[in-house]
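Annotated sample (chain length 248).
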Amino acid sequence: MILSDDELDRYARQIVLPQFGGVGQRKLKEAKIVIVGAGGIGSAIIPALAGAGIGQLTIIDDGMVEVANLHRQPIYRERDLGYSKADLALQFVQRLNRFVKAQPVQARIDAGNARDLLAGHRLVIDGSDNFATRLAVSDACVALDTPLLSAAAIQLQGQVGLFLHQPCYRCFVGDAFDADDCDSCAEQGVLGAVPAAVGSFAAMLALNSISGVGDSQFGQVHLFDGEKLTWRAMRIPADPACRACGSA
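Output written by the structure step:
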């Protein structure tokens, strides 16, 4: 895929990196990524990926902007209250980078539609705010043979993990969280900067994975402690009895 002169100028500070170069930038342009959730984590991921030059972004979110979102979702403004997050995220991408194609999807993703919504993408990034959605997304990614980058934040804690088959995200959390009534930040609270930190880390992991920078991170989860301001990584073992990937 050819980069135009305008794109070469725009991404010059990335292309000059010896680990990245023109090859890495072309890989970003070729990539089609779907982002599940345009909330706090998505508000960090969307600008980072659009700014970096990911070729196509699909943004899935059925929500409308609420006043309680604004402390952690800086791509929205007070004037956006009551409007579709997916549509507003599209407008943000269009204003930021004319070379990135974006498609908003105003839908709630679940086990019934996840495969159809996620099919055809190079990478799925899940920044949703409940376990039922995350597990539906994970199971669909296993079935589709598509890498999943899962990111979550609550209170002063966050986690980011990259999965492909064994282990999958379900190996990490188990089957106990399929219900819709599991805790979310609406009940537990979240410091506004925590989703930004987690989303930025997830974006970095996505860019590295797509461009081939650094070592493989599959099967590894990075945990963020916002009180101690530390990150630590742990490797997730595959669960042979996992109902999603156990027979993969």
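Annotation: The beta strands are 32-36, 56-60, 101-105, 123-126, 148-154, 157-163, 220-225, 230-235.
Annotation: The chain has a mean pLDDT of 94.
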